[in-house]
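Interim report to the steering committee. The following record documents the input for Family with sequence similarity 200 member C (594 residues).
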Amino acid sequence: MSKKRKWDDDYVRYWFTCTTEVDGTQRPQCVLCNSIFSNADLRPSKLSDHFNRQHGGVGGHDLNSLKHMPAHSDQNETLKAFGVASHEDALLQASYQFAYLCAKEKNPHTIAEKLVKPCALEIAQIVLGPDAQKKLQQVPLSDDVIHSRIDEMSQDILQQVLEDIKASPLKVGVQLAETTDMDDCSQLMAFVRYVKEREIIEEFLFCEPLQLTMKGIDVFNLFRDFFWKHKIALDVCGSVCTDGASSMLGENSEFVACVKKEVPHIMITHCLLNPHELVAKTLPAKLRDALFTVVRVVNFIKGRAPNHRVFQAFFEEIGIEYSVLLFHTEMRWLSRGQILTHVFEMYEEIDQFLHHQSSNLVDGFENKEFKIHLAYLADLFKHLNELSASMQRTGMNTVSAREKLSAFVRKFPFWLKQIEKRNFTNFPFLEEIIVSDNEAVCIATDITLHLQQLSNFFHGYFSIGDLDEASKWILDPFLFNLDFVDDGYLMKNDLAELRASGQILMEFETMKLEDFWCAQFTAFPNLAKTALEILIPFATTYLCELGFSSLLHFKTKSRSCFNMSDDIRVAISKKVPRFSDIIEQKLQLQQKSL
């Protein structure tokens, strides 16, 4: 970061005054054309150069003469009264709007002064003439200006989210996940879900680096300090959904222990999006060996540049659709299923390539038993991919997610009965290559053992189960049998009254479940509160995973020292900055500095 320059009252001789940003950075502003320059331009040579080139170089004014100049405020107010923005307002608005688009598109800040503004000036000169070019020239779009604009918009968006959290009638839900960027810096990201008016809102909360160690206590301290910094009690959180290493964010981690100590009532859930790892842990030895063989084959091809180039050329020559294999990665839920599918569908071609390269992996890869196990794994992980994909959406709550998981596990007994009869209809890849009864018997034994273990692990790990009968009115209060509710239940009368309303029935049939219960806050506050306390908690860390994808745009080799917290907030937040308030505050600061 370059050294910040300081304002000197002697600079007024060049018809400049000083504007001070929120972070204390001083920037020179030309009184004659209202252009604002970066802090790096706060030196006599730069100011005099602008004054001489743009305004004829008639200097010699002092501070008192500028203080007694007529203010622009009266003129600005008159223009606003007629719905017309003043010249100064227009310049600022254009600057903020471009900075907003720059952040939304995840572009580097320098793109404005290095590419966009020069192009715009050339276009204006050719199409609109020199007068329009001079007007565009006054729009401040330097690297420092864009950076400060994004910082200000980020703070405004954050302020809007914090105001919503404080005004929420119910405790909020939070999802937390951690990743490592290209600089090996651990980044903690959080999203929040809360009630606002007649809907549930999901918003970006923060993305902050873990400076030194990455223990559970470090995550907790960063999480707690964020709320304390903004003067919000931690008990505003009603639930936290986590994902990651068990030592950091697992259900038995130090982070969870610290959170529960600080907020005893809080509900901790674990992301339901990653059953693939659980499946891998329950694989019998033969199936596990088959999976490891696939990983070794892919690494042999992808991990060595010459092999990869030859592999691509080979596939182009024979005209195969897949010319690129995917790396296996623990961080992406769908990667393992896609790898297995690709390898199975390209089995013959990969086998030829391994022979061509004289690889020692050929013997294991050509084994008939391996191919059968590969087919089963490809089918099983394809089912898991479909399950995970069905939960990869915004608004996914724990009730809906666990219903999907429960429905998936309930298929196991049906699959087992079919496998006993040597019917592999639900495993199409496996059915395709099974040619003898002996092969069917061998794989059927392995599948039966695996599915039984998997069913037990699913029930224990994800706590599969529907709502208890007395709470199922949340899903459908009109078809729910009131006999399941105890007569002493305080809200039984409210349920009976709600069921009698035809208008509310129409709302239930046309609205999402969460929005329906938000709409009942006025008429039936107790019912709405009970329902939403179950529907607000996050079931997955899907939003964090989407946010991590954005990190790939912000944290690159050319931007490795870049602090991306503000940029990523503007880029992925659904909130729109309050431009009029930001610009008005900016103009007030400029007027005070005159």
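The first helix runs from residue 44 to 55. The committee is asked to note this result when reviewing the revised timeline.
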